[in-house]
Amino acid sequence: MRTYINLRNTVLTIMIAASLVGCQTKAGTGALIGGAGGALVGGLIGSYSHQRAGEGALIGGAVGAIGGALVGNAMDENDKKEREASYTSKYDQNYDQYGNKKR
User: Fold this and answer.
1) Do the Cβ atoms of 32 and 54 come closer than 8 Å?
2) CB proximity list for 39: less than 8 A, separation 6 or greater
3) d(Cα 1, Cα 5) in Å, to the nearest integer?
4) Cβ distance 41 to 7 under 8 Å?
5) Is pLDDT of 73 > 90?
6) Burial tier of 17 (Cβ tally within 10 Å: 0-12, 13-18, 19+)
7) Three-class SS string for the chain?
8) pTM score, two decimals?
9) Which long-range contacts (CB under 8 A, 24 or more apart) does 2-11 make?
10) HSE (CB half, 13 Å, CA atoms) of 9?
11) Which residue, 67, 79, 99, 100, shows the most beta carbons closer than 10 Å to its own?
């Protein structure tokens, strides 16, 4: 039981720190938060099922980090497409096909 409390406190501390720090991209932030959340859930499941909280936390953290990075990367790609579409539409309204400003 003591191991569970120590693991829980450690993972909660890491999750809070990761949410405060953040990353430059959503993929990085997703990997941090997903990894911390996965470690928490994996540790809980591991400690209740076979008394292997460390192994569960390790596996859960890895799976959570991969999942968070994939979701964050998809969000980054979506943001990139929206920025490009916004730029293109504004450019097309003000300039002709040769790059000359419309009158």
Assistant:
1) no
2) 11, 14, 57, 58, 60, 61, 64
3) 7
4) no
5) yes
6) exposed
7) CHHHHHHHHHHHHHHHHHHHHCCCCHHHHHHHHHHHHHHHHHHHHHHHHCCCHHHHHHHHHHHHHHHHHHHHHHHHHHHHHHHHHHHHHHHHHHECCCCCECC
8) 0.63
9) 3/47, 3/53, 4/43, 4/44, 4/47, 4/53, 7/43, 7/47, 7/53, 7/54, 7/57, 8/40, 8/43, 8/44, 11/36, 11/39, 11/40, 11/43, 11/57
10) 6
11) 67
Write down the pLDDT at residue 75: 94
Look at the block and give the residue holding tokens 């003591």: 2
Residue 71 reports pLDDT greater than 90: yes
Calpha distance 37→59 (Å, rounded): 11
Task: Supply 27's token pair.
Answer: 């993929």
Find residue 101's DSSP bridge partners: 95
- Amino acid in position 68: G
pLDDT, tens digit (0-9, with 9 covering 90-100), for 1-28: 566 677 777 777 877 776 666 678 888 8
